[in-house]
């Protein structure tokens, strides 16, 4: 067995891991190692060949591979070391046990660890669609990998369930490749992805978007022959008599993402049931000292630009921890989602002599117009801002100053419509 | 002619109603800010999009190379450009940004690689 040591070990070489690695090195960590299970770096961005990345971070419109390359090149130039084909199988705090294609078992002893494993897609099993079990049912991301990286086409006539961004982007991609996209079916009464994607991926190609509809049955023996869809009521229950049959040979599922936290949970790290990811403080630090986390393993982001920003934060603080440059803690404040707020990241604000401004990221539970967003401490308002519109698919943020906060206080964020 | 355009400049997504005829705008309403004006103007007169796809790649471990148009191209030319891209086969090594088809369909833009690929070891 091969033994390696480093200051900061980063699990996952996608956009989160690359940005964290770059930042850790810049902060002064001498050995930073990225452990990636795929055969190349960049994570899911490698298959996201479409544009729309980097609009806020780089102020230009890049494709996924281009965005990943920028961070890979920066991290390489900083002297980060990369281990490909390396799967972290087990961790004991900051001690990692991995399998590598050529080296076999490898142990990595790190002073700090950054969790950057990303997320995976929800599948048919999680949404329990009745019917037979034919070939031709894919998650949208799997189809994306097959089409964009492996040169395998998934079908000729496709129905897409879910109006998330990946689903809409695949609708356009398939259409450009000559595939007939019958419809995008969405159980919510609103679009779950970005408006920009509805315009450029669906409207541009006249692909029908059926809101408040879902797939109620999959039909087919060897291969999908079609799906029944139905309108749903306010409780998301299919309305009897509204069923219609859509003939298709393929069903793509774009029905949500789950942070991939098996390693996290194995260490007893506290998980936020609202995000499915580890609870963090503003330094991206988990409940296990020395273990940090960033990107979609924490909460599912809509823009990679935000992932880069929080990952730079994670890498910086993981390096400071490794170099024993962290401040003494004076306590913490818990962040709790209030009215119309689904979750807040970070879940805690650590109080230390530093008291730098903290950016809180949060999502609305439902689309709302003309709103006031309020941050309060133990019920007393400390900041408000107005927004023309909020949407669960688009992350909101608010910066607050922790200067006057005291240990044990509770911070809440509420969103309310103003008349 | 009246056309409703969803603005994608920011996440608000204003529904902008543009009236006019082909090549001419007479009126515009529904935009919450002035950034919507140039957007809706372009969308009404000549909507353009960046095209991204993959082309066949040989001499590498990967079978496909991701590519893009280096400028937005008129929406109605997307499928014609796709037809050209489908016939293209390139071989490694290729650098990110390398021009694969210059001045595609005379549209004053190039089809370029969005990834660097090294030859098979």
Taking the alpha carbons of the first and last residues of chain A, their distance comes to 66 Å
CATH class of the largest domain in chain A: Alpha Beta
Domains counted in the coordinates of chain A: how many? 3
CATH architecture type of the largest domain in chain B = Roll
Structural class of chain B: alpha+beta
Which helices and strands, and how do they pair?
The complex is a heterodimer of chains A (419) and B (121).
Chain A: E1 2-11, H1 15-26, E2 32-35, E3 51-53, E4 62-63, H2 64-78, E5 81-83, E6 86-92, E7 95-100, E8 104-115, E9 119-121, H3 124-127, E10 137-139, H4 140-149, E11 157-161, H5 165-176, E12 180-185, H6 195-202, E13 209-210, E14 213-220, E15 224-231, E16 244-247, E17 250-253, E18 257-259, H7 262-266, E19 291-293, H8 304-322, E20 331-337, E21 341-345, E22 348-351, E23 358-364, E24 368-377, E25 380-390, E26 396-400, E27 410-417
Parallel strand pairs in A: 1-2, 1-8, 2-5, 8-19, 10-17, 11-12, 11-17, 12-13, 20-27
Antiparallel strand pairs in A: 3-4, 6-7, 7-8, 9-18, 14-15, 15-16, 20-22, 21-23, 23-26, 24-25, 24-27
Helix pairs in contact in A: 1-2, 1-8, 5-6
Chain B: E1 2-6, E2 15-21, E3 24-29, H1 36-45, E4 48-49, E5 52-58, E6 64-69, E7 73-74, H2 78-87, E8 89-91, E9 99-101, E10 111-113
Parallel strand pairs in B: 5-8
Antiparallel strand pairs in B: 1-2, 2-3, 4-7, 5-6, 6-10, 9-10
Give a description of the structure.
The complex is a heterodimer of chains A (419) and B (121). Chain A is an alpha/beta fold. Chain A has three domains: 190 residues, 3-Layer(bba) Sandwich (FAD/NAD(P)-binding domain), CATH 3.50.50.60; 133 residues, FAD/NAD(P)-binding domain (3-Layer(bba) Sandwich); 91 residues, Sandwich (Immunoglobulin-like), CATH 2.60.40. Chain A contains eight helices and 27 strands. In chain A, strands 1, 2, 5, 6, 7, 8 and 19 form a seven-stranded mixed β-sheet that branches. In chain A, α5 links the parallel β11 and β12. In chain A, α1 packs parallel to α2 and α5 runs parallel beside α6. The longest helix of chain A has 19 residues. The radius of gyration of chain A is 22 Å and the shape is globular. Chain A starts with a strand and ends with a strand. In chain A, 49% of the residues are buried. The mean pLDDT of chain A is 96. In chain B, a hairpin with a 5-residue loop joins β5 and β6. In chain B, the strands form three sheets. Chain B has a five-stranded mixed β-sheet. Chain B has a three-stranded antiparallel β-sheet with strand order 1-2-3, covered by helices on one side. A two-stranded antiparallel sheet of chain B has the order 4-7. The termini of chain B are far apart. Chain B has two domains: 44 residues; 62 residues, CPE0013-like (CPE0013-like fold, Roll). Chain B is built from two helices and ten strands, in the order βββαββββαβββ. Chain B is of the alpha+beta class and 121 residues long. The relative contact order of chain B is 0.16. The mean pLDDT of chain B is 94. Chains A and B meet through α2, α4 and α6 of A and β5, β6 and α2 of B.
